[in-house]
Specification:
By secondary structure, the protein is an alpha/beta fold. It has three domains: 2-226, 3-Layer(aba) Sandwich (Rossmann fold); 263-364, no CATH class; 403-530, no CATH class. It has helices spanning 21-34, 47-60, 95-101, 105-112, 175-184, 191-205, 227-233, 266-278, 318-325, 333-340, 382-393, 403-410, 476-484; strands at residues 2-9, 38-43, 66-73, 76-79, 82-85, 103-104, 119-125, 152-156, 213-216, 236-239, 287-291, 297-306, 312-317, 350-353, 358-360, 366-369, 423-431, 437-451, 456-461, 496-503, 512-523, 526-530. The strands form four sheets. The chain has a seven-stranded mixed β-sheet with strand order 10-22-17-18-19-20-21. It is elongated, with a radius of gyration of 30 Å.
């Protein structure tokens, strides 16, 4: 969605001039521009200019899909429960003049709500002090509470009926806008998190006299982050292309199927399941992923096994399982291994998909896959199992970057840089003379493979003497290809790595290597991406 912003700062009021609104508007305009907003900045608007600028802005965003933001710093009042933003060049004598010679906030809300496809954000840093000390009889103190339509978020510098400070500790900006600018510079924060942080900081600095307030009717959330913000947020950094090695293998020769080790026979299946059980996955659900001709990977759970003639397994999609099979549960890796070892000698491995006709595993490209979010299929705890399964499909909590977040990051990678080999940087660990472990300089790691079953990338410290040949190294094109073929439910998974890592524990000692499984982000590990 395109981002459009109108930023207004009114300072030069004839009766009650303010100190910081022009600075506030200018600084907000600069920051929003860095957040990919197309910003219109205006200072000291009279009522005619006020109306012209808002009308023009609303006309631009009345069709299409926009993220619209309107920011106003200046004086504001309420009359009969309605809020008005005050232009300069007016002397207001009574409430009638305010109603007809100031700009109605309700009019702004009405204009913006015409396009229901838009996401509207309105920020009002007004009520800094009372512009009508001599006429308290015709207006309410502060601004009135506002109810907004769906798709609109409105924020006020202070709560209804209260006034706001015009200065902060910095002296350049108003108290509210000062903390808003700081909060917007912090990546990863959603819209509500930004204004929650602002509310806490303003409340504390004002010694609990000013409490910012919002009214929110958005469905979902919005993040101000841009390409640059995401680089700071994810364990990934951009680096000049000159620091990278490039593969001379044509991209057409690097197909997704290169990274697939399909299971086609009972022997294939038994070997895979034995390894999974040895690695501690015996009680996890037996999940099979099937690659369709379209390139989409479909995950399935096993709900039946055995058979006298066509010995094999009944597989159902997650949705079918939750709809019709949830009360019966599904089979674990260990159970399927036991049954596979009992398969009739010389028989084919068959699957029945969503209770359809049997199909030979030889005719499919499929493999077992670990469901990292589910520890076991214990029938006494099906409720937890199902809740976790639903959560995996929907929106699990993430501590480290997920695959879909990395896909979003790779959108900014130029096509001519995708043949560069993937670089992983991990902070090195050493011990000082007192035995304290210190994090020091980092070294480059390369990815050399991918295990579809474990959803794990394999890599090596480039100093390791047994590192695979460069023709096995993954390029960014490979990485994008692999992640793009990950089933939708697993795009929310974290980036798993199994690395041969080198450590220098004490200065002067030789490098020690050990195999480690870790998530991207651990030990400040990060993907380095060409500019």
């Amino acid at each position: 969605m395109l981002r459009k912003a109108l930023v207004i700062g009114n300072r030069n009021y004839s009766d009650k001039p303010l100190i910081t609104p022009c600075n506030d508007a200018s600084d907000m305009s600069t920051l929003l521009t860095s957040k990919d907003f197309d910003v219109t900045l205006k200072h000291d608007l009279c009522i005619e200019s006020f109306d012209r600028e808002i009308s023009g802005f609303c006309n631009v965003v009345k069709e299409g899909k926009f993220i619209t933001l309107v920011y106003f710093a200046g004086h504001g009042v309420q009359v009969d429960g309605q809020n008005y933003l005050l232009p300069i060049g007016q002397e207001f004598i009574d409430e009638t003049q305010i109603k007809y010679r100031a700009y109605s906030l309700n009019e702004l809300l009405d204009r913006l709500s015409k396009n229901r496809n838009n996401l509207n954000i309105i920020i009002i840093d007004a009520c800094r002090n009372n512009p009508f000390d001599q006429n308290r009889n015709f207006y309410g103190s502060g601004l009135a509470e506002v109810t907004v339509n769906r798709g609109t978020f409105i924020a006020f510098a202070t709560s209804p009926g209260k006034t706001a400070s015009d200065v902060s500790l910095t002296g350049r900006n108003g108290l509210y806008t000062s903390h808003l600018l700081n909060a917007l510079k912090r990546p990863t924060l959603g819209l509500e998190q930004v204004f929650k942080l602002v509310r806490e900081n303003v409340f504390n600095e004002s010694q609990e006299k000013q409490l910012p307030w919002v009214s929110n009717s958005l469905i979902g959330d919005f993040c101000f982050d841009t390409k640059t913000d995401k680089v700071k947020y994810l364990p990934a950094t951009f680096q000049a292309t000159s620091h990278f090695e490039f593969s001379d293998i044509l991209e057409k020769d690097r197909l997704f199927t290169k990274f697939i080790n399909p299971v086609r026979t009972w022997a294939d299946l038994i070997v895979n399941l034995k390894v999974l059980c040895e690695e501690g996955h015996s009680e996890r659900p037996f999940c099979v992923e099937i690659l369709l001709n379209t390139g989409i990977v479909i995950p399935m759970l096993c709900v039946t096994c055995g058979g006298n003639v066509d010995y094999g397994y009944g597989l159902v999609t997650f949705e079918e399982y939750l709809k019709n099979n949830a009360e019966y549960g599904c089979f674990s890796v260990a159970y399927v291994l036991e049954s596979a070892q009992s398969a009739p000698e010389g028989s084919e491995l068959f699957y029945s998909i969503d209770f359809s006709e049997r199909i030979s595993a030889n005719q499919l490209t499929s493999w077992p896959a670990i469901l990292w979010g589910i520890e076991n299929t214990d029938g006494t705890n099906l409720g937890s199992f199902h809740a976790t399964l639903i959560n995996m499909i929907k929106d699990p909590l993430l501590k480290y970057p997920s695959l879909d977040q990395l896909i979003d990051l790779f959108r900014y990678l130029p096509e001519n840089q995708k043949s560069a080999f993937v670089k992983i940087v991990i902070d090195d660990i050493r011990e000082d003379e007192d035995g304290n472990k210190l994090i020091e300089s980092s070294d480059d790691y390369v990815l050399t493979g991918y295990c579809n079953t474990r959803k794990t990338f394999i890599g090596f410290d480039k100093r390791f003497h047994c590192i695979p040949d460069k023709k096995e190294w993954l390029t960014y094109s490979d990485l994008i290809n692999i992640i793009s073929h990950t089933p939708e439910y697993q795009l929310k998974d974290k980036f798993q790595m199994n690395l041969m890592m080198g450590f220098i524990w004490r200065e002067g000692e030789e490098i020690e290597f050990e195999q480690s499984s870790l998530l991207l982000g651990h030990l400040d590990s990060r993907i380095v991406i060409p500019e």
